[in-house]
Amino acid sequence: MSVNAPAPGPVEHMKDGGGALQAVKKKWKPGPTDRLLWLVAYALTVVAVLLRTPVLHGTVHQRLQASEMAGLIKDEGMETLAVNVGLLLAVLVSTLLLGIFYSLAATVEKHVFTARRTVGGRSFGLFFTVALLCTLPVHAVSAALALSSPKDSGFYYLYVLVVGLTVPLWFRAGWKGRGQQKALTVFAFSLGVAGLSLLI
C-alpha cells in the first residue's frame, strides 16, 4: 500500500522561494566598493587615456618612421591612415586592459579583504583604492606633462610600489590584530594588484 505525500502548500513554496532568494543574494553579495565608484573611476581613467592621444599620435608616427614599414609606405595619406589605425588599436587595447584590471581588482576585493571606508555615503575598499591610484593619476599626469609613456621614468615604478605598500595602512583596522598571516596576505595582494597595473 503506497502513501502519497501531500503536495506542498503555498507556505512551503514561499519558504523554498525565500531560501533560494537568500542563497542568490548571498552568492551575489556586493563587494565593499559601490558599483558607481567603479564605473566613475573607469570612465575618468578612460578620459585621461583619451587626453593622451595627441602625444601618443606623435609617438606612433615616430615609431612608424623608424620602422622598416616607413620605406614601403610612399603615400602620405596611407601613412596617416596607418598612424591613426595604430593609435586607435592602442587606445582600444588600453581601455580593454583597464576594464579587465578593474574587474580583477573588484574580484580580489570581494573575496580577499572586504574592509571598507565610507566617504560622503559611498563606500570603497582597499583594492579599489590601489587600482584607482595606480591608473587615474598616472594617465592624468602623463596627459598634463605630455609624456608618451610613464614607464620611461623610474619614479613611476617607485610610485606604484609606494601605493602597494601604503594603501593597506589606511585599512589597517580591517587586518590589525587578526594575525601575521592575514597582514601578509593583504600586503601581498595589494602589491600584486599594484604590480598588475604596470601591464596596462
Provide structural commentary:
The chain has eight helices and two strands, in the order H-H-H-H-E-E-H-H-H-H. It is 68% helix and 4% strand. The protein has 200 residues and is mainly alpha-helical.
Structural class label: mainly alpha
Binned, the helix content reads 55-70%
Q: Round the Cα radius of gyration to an integer and report it.
A: 24 Å
Number of domains: 1
- Average pLDDT rating: 83
The topology string of helices and strands comes to HHHHEEHHHH
List the uncertain runs. Answer: 1-6, 10-15
Straight-line distance between termini: 71 Å
| Beta-strand content bin | under 5%
Please state how the strands of the largest beta sheet are arranged side by side: 1-2
Q: Number of helical segments?
A: 8
Label the overall shape: elongated
Taking the sheet with the most strands, its summary is: 2 strands, antiparallel
Number of strands: 2
